[in-house]
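FORM 12-B: Structure-to-Sequence Request
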């Protein structure tokens, strides 16, 4: 890891960064495995169930991204207060984060439970009844888990802000054990398909929320929450959190909305576009997303670590260390993602058959994954890891605007141009190439923003 470029005492040693990043990488891998396990385990029930589960997972990722954005806002505020050595304010911000996360999650759960079928039909159009039935039951069960996911995300973000990512890593391990165990019993033992996967997800999320909710109340922690059941909203703290959380939430949610709009295009692919069966495009896209998300884990871990590291540097008004740590962490991201991407490129033909896909689906999935590996090595860290340094400094509005423009113009617009039958007719590969164009644009703009240094002039607290 690169050392900081200033003469001041380093806020984080190499050992501190290692303790932060390694558990974060394991945690992110374990969290990815939850959705991936659902997709893999329901393959025994047929492609219609796989498609139904994968469609709902795209909606759930949208919701989880909103929770993650709020948690990022809270983590930035807490980290900056810790950088200032203002622990009392850090504890107050932590409590307000939990209130905001719980309120948002209950509202989103209610909307999902009441309107899940209209939402599915609006987003995905005329999918088959078999796919719709699986999607409806899986949506019902996973939506009930939203408040527990929000509590877990907030608690995990608070531990990360303190530089302690081991707690959330262990919690993620528990989530996986419960999810896979319940899935195995209900899917393989009772043949419950999508319902079994949904119950497994719900049970694991409840357990995770209870565990981290209890742990964050321990008075021995640097930042802890007390008197949680005596609501006392502090609007000043809430504004600080939302100053980062709202732009990040809009960015994350619109990003996922863009993916859903593109997925609607994927569900429309027919025999003449790309694959032998209409449902195969959805299944191939789901598998590619699951595998690609796993190889991005190191970059995501470094990005989460940046919120803590750069947040504390900016709170301490040490811009030199903020720049130095960002450069060092970006090197780490590139090295680790380079390794995982190379593994994916050569292992794709072996990984894809594990999902019991039809031969036609397996061919296109392998092709897409190899393209993904190439673009990930070059552009992914600059597109998605670097912006977290800007957000941790308070430059969240800029990252939001850039991400939204790039998403609508490149990811959505070019998906229809490259993938649809009235465009170049490249099918699923065209959709993914459009996504790669989005990465390129983000990478260039965020890199220029970092070099110019305007992000250092922002204030959060």
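FORM 12-B RESPONSE
SEQUENCE OUT:
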């Amino acid at each position: 890891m690169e050392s900081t470029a200033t003469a001041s005492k380093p806020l984080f040693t190499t050992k501190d960064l290692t303790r932060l990043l390694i558990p974060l990488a394991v945690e992110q891998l374990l969290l990815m495995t939850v959705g991936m396990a659902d997709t893999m385990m329901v393959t025994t029930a047929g492609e219609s169930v796989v498609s139904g589960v994968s469609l709902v997972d795209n909606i759930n990722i949208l919701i989880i991204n909103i929770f993650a954005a709020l948690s990022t806002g809270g983590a930035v505020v807490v980290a900056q207060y810790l950088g200032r050595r203002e622990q009392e304010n850090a504890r107050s911000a932590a409590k307000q984060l939990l209130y905001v996360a719980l309120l948002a999650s209950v509202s989103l759960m209610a909307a999902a439970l009441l309107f899940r079928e209209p939402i599915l039909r609006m987003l995905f159009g005329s999918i088959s009844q078999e796919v719709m039935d699986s999607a409806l039951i899986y949506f019902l069960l996973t939506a009930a888990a939203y408040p527990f996911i929000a509590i877990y995300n907030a608690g995990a973000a608070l531990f990360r802000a303190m530089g302690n990512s081991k707690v959330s890593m262990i919690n993620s391990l528990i989530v996986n054990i419960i999810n896979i165990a319940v899935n195995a019993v209900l899917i393989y033992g009772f043949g419950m398909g999508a319902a079994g996967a949904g119950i497994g997800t719900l049970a694991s999320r409840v357990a995770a929320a209870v565990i981290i909710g209890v742990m964050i109340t321990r008075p021995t922690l640097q930042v802890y929450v007390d008197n949680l059941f005596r609501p006392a909203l502090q609007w000043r703290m809430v504004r600080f959190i939302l100053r980062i959380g709202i732009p990040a939430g809009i960015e994350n949610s619109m990003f996922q909305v863009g993916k859903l709009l593109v997925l609607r295009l994927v569900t429309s692919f027919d025999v003449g576009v790309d694959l032998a069966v209409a449902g195969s495009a959805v299944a191939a896209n789901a598998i590619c997303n699951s595998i690609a998300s796993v190889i991005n884990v190191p970059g995501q871990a470094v990005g989460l670590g940046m919120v803590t590291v750069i947040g504390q540097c900016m709170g301490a008004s040490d811009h030199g260390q903020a720049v130095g740590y960002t450069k060092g962490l970006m090197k780490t991201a590139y090295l680790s993602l380079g390794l995982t991407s190379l593994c994916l490129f050569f292992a794709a033909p072996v990984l894809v058959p594990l999902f019991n896909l039809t031969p036609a689906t397996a061919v296109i999935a392998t092709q897409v994954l190899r393209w993904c590996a190439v673009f990930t090595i070059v552009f992914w860290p600059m597109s998605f890891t670097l912006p977290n340094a800007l957000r941790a400094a308070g430059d969240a509005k800029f990252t939001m605007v850039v991400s939204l423009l790039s998403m609508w113009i490149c990811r959505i617009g070019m998906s229809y141009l490259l993938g649809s039958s009235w465009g170049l007719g490249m099918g699923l590969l065209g959709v993914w190439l459009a996504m790669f164009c989005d990465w390129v644009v983000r990478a260039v703009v965020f890199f220029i923003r970092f070099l110019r240094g305007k992000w250092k002039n922002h204030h959060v607290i």
